[in-house]
Amino acid sequence: MTFDRIDLKILDILQRDATVPVARIADQVGLSQTPCWKRIQKHEEAGVIRARVALLDPDALGLSMTVFVLVEAVEHTPDWRAGFLAVIERLEAVRDVYRLAGTYDFLLRVVVADMPAFDRFYEKLTAGVRLRSVNSIFALECLRAETALPLSACGAGIEARS
Amino acid sequence: MTFDRIDLKILDILQRDATVPVARIADQVGLSQTPCWKRIQKHEEAGVIRARVALLDPDALGLSMTVFVLVEAVEHTPDWRAGFLAVIERLEAVRDVYRLAGTYDFLLRVVVADMPAFDRFYEKLTAGVRLRSVNSIFALECLRAETALPLSACGAGIEARS
DNA sequence: GCTGAAAATACTAATAC
DNA sequence: GTATTAGTATTTTCAGC
């Protein structure tokens, strides 16, 4: 699938503000409404646009604590991994899960209300799986959190997988 | 500001899928359209709903590399921090910035196309500020990435700042 | 606070160019 | 790709309870 400058501009507008009407997007990219709408439709069907969501303020909802948890596996087997993921799955505080290269095997971004809530999470995590090590890094402040991708890094025309 | 069960349910629906029409949200929370719409409006004005955005597929756009960069400051002064943030600001690959408690001072989530692109980022970062240490943790795979907050952890009625 | 209905806007689809 | 059209759905406002 290829994206030209117009596609990238449309996607960039939508990933910043999905409430912009198609007519204005068309204006900004120098297209008329119909082809602009068709492009958006195409990207939605292709899954390039995965979803349209509302972003909420964590502080306003009392979820102002973010902790990054670095986990080391006790053994590097498919079984251990399956068990680990099964436990993670049920823990709602876990927002992001990344498998890592290097010393640590997994990175979790955990969002909770306060320290007692984090302790409850920690209990459940360590009760569910055996871990070689757990390193919790507490965030004092979130200075930036962008859901938008850096599309300017894509350049003019890019090509991607299938 | 307080949120009752209905508020939390409305917000939960919207943070998962912002395309759901107000009429259906009203149905699901047991309200008629107008009061449901008014609640959404109120949350938007209060900033509880920060934005409505489209989420894009990083792989489809050739941005499949995520690196977490842990940074240690050379000195813990306001000046150093201001300089660091000024450099970070101009680096588009940096998506999230967290100030940390503990050994490391900052965590960056960096999204780039490939290793050369990360190298260019690294060059710019280290050229712009003096750092005591930089620890780059490469993600092999993203198993989960939720923009939604774990509202179920809020319980029935919650109270938050101002 | 709620209901119900009307008005304004935006979306979706089809047409001919 | 453009321009125009029309039908549908949604949002938003306005009365009244």
TrEMBL record, chains A, B:
- Cross-referenced InterPro entries: ArsR-like_HTH (IPR011991), AsnC-type_HTH_dom (IPR000485), Dimeric_a/b-barrel (IPR011008), Tscrpt_reg_AsnC-like (IPR019888), Tscrpt_reg_AsnC/Lrp_C (IPR019887), WH-like_DNA-bd_sf (IPR036388), WH_DNA-bd_sf (IPR036390)
Q: Which Pfam families match?
A: AsnC_trans_reg, HTH_AsnC-type
What species was this sequence derived from? Rhodovulum visakhapatnamense
What CDD domains does the record point to?
HTH_ARSR
Sorted alphabetically, which PROSITE patterns does this protein's record hold? HTH_ASNC_2
Where does the source fall among the domains of life? Bacteria
Could you list this entry's UniProt keywords, alphabetically sorted. Answer: DNA-binding, Transcription, Transcription regulation
Q: What is this protein called?
A: Lrp/AsnC family transcriptional regulator
Domain HTH asnC-type: start-end pairs = 3-64
